[in-house]
Write a structure and sequence with these properties.
single chain; 4 helices; mainly alpha
Length: 91
Amino acid sequence: MDNFKQLSQEIEKIKNRNLKVEIDKAWEISFSRKILIAILTYFVIVLFFQFANLSKPFINAIVPTLGFLLSTMSIPFFKNFWIKNIYKRCK
């Protein structure tokens, strides 16, 4: 009976860990995360441009922020390409 209880506890630990991993993965690929990072990136770039005395920091910070956002949105495409065409050849 003690083994059964121990196995049940181990299964519960695994289920909890898997749930945490699923939640973390959902956050990593979420649109909300990408928007939040883009907003934070924009404000950091604006601050940098202001301290560097560059002209129109609020306008000029849009370009690198959009570049970052575009790069994060294209990563799944390149990841799938890499898995299908390169990773499988290495095995």
